[in-house]
Amino acid sequence: MSDCKNVLIFGATGLVGRHIIQQILKGKNAFDRIAIFTSSDTVNSKSEEIAILKDQGVEVLVGNITDENDVKKAYQGVDTVISAVGRNMIEHQVELIRLADQTPNIHRFFPSEYGTDIEHGPESSGEKPHQRKLKVRASIRSCKNLDYTFLVTGPYADGDPVLYLSPNHGATVTGSFDVRTKTAVLLGSGDLKIAFTTMADVGKLLLAALTYPDVSRNKALKVKSFTTTDADLLEEFEKQTGGEKWKVSYTSIEELKRLEKEAWEMANPLATVITLRRIWATGGTLYDKWDNEAIGSPAVQSLAEAVAAAIDVQLHGERELKRKLV
Ligand SMILES: NC(=O)c1ccc[n+]([C@@H]2O[C@H](COP(=O)([O-])OP(=O)(O)OC[C@H]3O[C@@H](n4cnc5c(N)ncnc54)[C@H](OP(=O)(O)O)[C@@H]3O)[C@@H](O)[C@H]2O)c1
């Protein structure tokens, strides 16, 4: 068995990367080394966040992710690479994977997945938002020396902008929970089941995958916080915001598909999100089996906890970030 004890993280100050590094730090006794690779731009623009990470024992390696020498240098002494790069850098992971495969000390790579299973069914291979992640999966499977784990989480049950428990400003018709105005837009009739993971749990479940390297080796590891429906989410939002009924409207799946088609035709940047919402609402997150138990059943958040956190984020937003990081 090869342990995952010397980890290097790409994208550690990004939306989900922040949660991943925080959870890894909570389990830091299990690691010999925790390093992040980031850019000088990030070091300057997020100096306070970087300083907090350093205080917590994180090694901060600064370089250009597209510079082969910078990456090779950062790979020294690392056995596991965790990528949480954003969608704009997904395809560049093919290069990061090639270099990792050539680095004898690296044996495991977690590419930036953290979404629905992109190989869920026959139709998955044709979904536009999956194409670059599918290329990354193919590149890692062709490696000679590298094992992988694809952490499959479904949509995030969080209230940060654009996420499922947010007002989804600018695209409310594709689903919305707005705490300030007490309005919601539900998909279908509100009774469609979706399996969610909160971002904190993405970090926690990734930590568990690292501590069960045999179980998580060379597989799409399917994890979740909970399965629920829009109607149950709404009921919880109403309960936690004073009990008053919210103003609710519905978007049928047919309408969602029409909006999706229109968005792709118009090259609307929201097209990816609309397609993902259609996939989530039509069974794309419902698997035969989840792997939480196989990686030690880490305690995950409940629907009530996720809604409470989403209300907090919607009302207080970024101001909460510092408190969470400290
Ligand atoms: N399931 C869901 O609901 C959901 C929602 C959103 C995203 N996701 C998935 O989660 C993964 C991460 O997405 P995210 O939204 O967390 O990413 P993000 O915040 O957009 O970006 C993450 C990090 O990528 C790095 N990065 C981006 N552009 C770069 C560049 N040009 N050069 C160098 N580094 C660059 C940065 O790293 P530094 O921190 O080092 O600067 C950045 O913080 C993706 O695979 C995405 O598809 C899933």
Automatic annotation (TrEMBL):
Residues 111-133 are annotated as: Disordered. This is Isoflavone reductase. Residues 117-129 have a biased composition (Basic and acidic residues). One of its GO terms (molecular function) is oxidoreductase activity. Keywords: NADP, Oxidoreductase. InterPro entries: NAD(P)-bd_dom_sf, NmrA-like, NmrA/Isoflavone_reductase-like. Residues 5-257 form the NmrA-like domain. It comes from the Eukaryota.
